[in-house]
Amino acid sequence: MRFRPLPVGLILAMVAAGEAEAIRPVHRMLDADDGLPPAPLFGIGQDAAGFIWLGTLAGVARYDGIRFRSWSERAPRDRPHRILAGSDGEVLVLDQSGALLRVAQRSLEPVAAPDGSALVDVEAAAFGPDGALWVARAGTLLVRRAGAWFETPAPPGTRFYEIAPLEPGGALVAADTGVHKLHRDGTTTLLDPSPRAVRMLQLGDEEYLILSWEGTNARLVEVSRGERVEHGEVSGRPIDLARRGKTLWVATDRYLAAFRPGEAPEITGPEDGLPSGGPLLVDREGSLWLGSFAGLLHFPEPDTILLNDEDGLPSSHTRHFHRTHEGIWLSTWQGAALISDGPQPIVLESEPTRFIGPDCVDARGVLWSGRADWHPMEFAILERLGRGDVEHGIDAFRRIFGCAAAHDGGLWMATNLGILRSGPSGGRPIRIYLHSRHRVRLERHPLRRGGQGIDRGDPRHHRPGDR
User: Fold this and answer.
1) What is the span of the domain harbouring residue 163?
2) Is residue 467 part of a domain?
3) 90 vs 69: CA distance, rounded Å
4) Do 260 and 266 meet the contact criterion of CB atoms below 8 Å apart?
């Protein structure tokens, strides 16, 4: 498995040191070197157990996150066009000839039609949110629930291209007469007149996305309570549509496009190193998968990016992460940086004189770090309050190497001076003295009534010279 940054095609804006810079998304390509059966990939789906199923030129394969396994000893009669995963663990394959097959132990077996024969001449099929299987063929719509088949009224049209079952019932059906909403009572409503829709997606109550052909381009339209909104077009033949969070992903035969609210579409194509477009999957962990003509592309998360010193970090030699109310503090060998949200998707503030040890955030969520400015030889302990620092100057202090939580919400700090300790409310850290056996010197104190002794970790009870 090889991790590769995509070049400039799919980018997010960021601010580093006051200037806009390009930051690189990260993905990995899985291909024959990783055990993937021969590409191209025609279909992709995730089953109830989390396995990813792929329709390849050689048949059906399963990916468990480590290795690929060819599942069928023989390839389907035709190319596996779609992978359908049911909520009960059933995995079906729709090949390009129209045969609907079930993945069995080591083979593919036909799905039985209502009359018991093999289910063929299928134009579209999909599992619904309730686990029902919807099948369109020969101008009719069939629904299988609990093993029994029912015929349901079909919208007008002589050919069906896609079915998208809805929550809590009904379905969107793409026919040669347009995209129709099939209501639970059997009535239909025309949502979009395009005769060449290939994918539909439900966004919410009475809110739908439709991906269709428009001349030689892919067109993305949102229909919300009867109102149509054009999201834009992408060059090439439309293949698939997926959503993660607020980002909409469109794949054509050559390009991958990301549509984010309020932003222009971000297009990645061959000139950016993308082999091709293909089927899409957003898995249950939020990763984006794309099946291309060269292999399987995995974006760990669709907005995973690569940051290094070219983007404004003090160094690409990163060490520790610390989450606070401001964002994420990143520690490197040459200083620290704060990564937070802002007017742009990412704001990066570099602080080359701040050095943070591991686990240096106390119970209040306050960050503790050291300031080491070697040129004027100025050093201090920094207590981050709000978006500013309180400096605590201590003679001969140079660096905090690491921290550990104290029982009362304070923080133990390992420094070049030895052990320092802050109280639960912060303030100037107190130095803890050790004797030659490396034990903390504690103040002698009588036991309290009831057999409860003092808190011997409290810095108020430490003083030089006591054992």
Assistant:
1) 2-304
2) no
3) 17
4) yes
